[in-house]
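Each field is set out underneath.
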Amino acid sequence: MAAAAALCAVAALPGAATADPGDLPAYRTADGAKPVKGAASSSDGPRLAAGGTYTDTIQPGEKRYYSVELDRKSTPWLSAAALPEAGAEVGGAEGLSLTLLGADGTECGSEDVDFGADGAARPIAASVGRLDEPDGNCQQPGVYHLSVERVAGSGPDAPTDPAAWPLELRFMREPGLRRLESTTPPENGDLPTGAPDLPTGEARELDGGTGFNDAVGMTGGAWKDRLRPGETRWYRVPVDWGQQLVLSAEFGTARTSDETAYASDGVRVDLYGPARGHIDDAGGTYTAGEPEQVTAATYPVTYQGRYAYDGAVSHASVAGWYYVAVHAHAAVGEFTDGPVPVTLRTALRGERKAGPGYDGDPAEGGFGVTGEDREQAEKGQSADATEDGDGGALRLVGYAGIGTGTVLLAGLGAWTVLARRRAGAGAPDAGTGTGTGMGTSAGREPTGAGPGGWGPQPPRGWS
């Protein structure tokens, strides 16, 4: 009864959804990620191994070096994700700059990513690769250097988050081709800017993840979720060769304390490729009393796209999981009372085609689309195959904020005390050997605390 009362109290808490951004779920780093410390000099950069994921931190204006060993044929993709605290004040020009250098200083590739005009603190990522170009630079096997620079805000009024940002680094290796037919990029034209023709069926509920590692699968169809102000939720879609992902994010109305208030660039969508390269982004003004629609798309997946100068084309040059990050600006919490509902309508355009003639298995490097991938997407599962039902069960309390956890613990504590009293009242005298044992088990420590439990990183869907 006490536990049931606690759940009722959760539902009745007024304005609990506008919890402090610091209460939002933290980005979930990859299982088994190894901590490293980037060096100030390229001569001292720690070695990153292919297939590995690593963590580090970086200060404003700092540049860190890492080293990698590359062979001749495969295509390495190196990425860095910056993970500022939700709600932190950042400038639109702040972000990351990645450069891959040869031992002789030749620049083999570079990419920048920033927070954009809205200045919303959220996970952002960039990716750089060394392309297979028979007559190009950086084709020799050997040791190369990756520099990751944190670009600070520019101008006297540009905010700069003074805190160190956690970094997640990943080294993916795509096998080379048995024969490279061409390095001429395709002529795709411009991406559509209007609202695409997308599925109109009833949306299925889905709990988005906190980042790349627990992003929840989607396929073509309609899906719905909810975001607290300052929160970013992540989804992933398997996109095969020849296919193009198009989607719209329809942000619904929410309870509001001011019908006239709005947040410019209050909602946005970012798309990333399988190697975590940034492809596209789109945003819109959010007013709690009116719905808002944001659309985004990728170019059709083609191998030669990597030779284009446009990152939107080059990062859509390999089949695999494509990532969708949906964000509600922290400023939305100033005039809303509750989460912002969002409906995602997605479609895969174009016929699936055979991939290029790889000299190896792309799946070993984390690329390509399998039948299991499509099944996970259809079921709305994350990388660890956690079904949507698990996340949905946590949604009952997920949007009420961390403060509701106190209510739940209090209710569970009352239930435990009540159970002990009942056990004490009905138990026989000591020595009879027929006691229930309730008093012993009730005093144990919770098994979920600490790493991997409900400690510093709450499970997906828990707020």
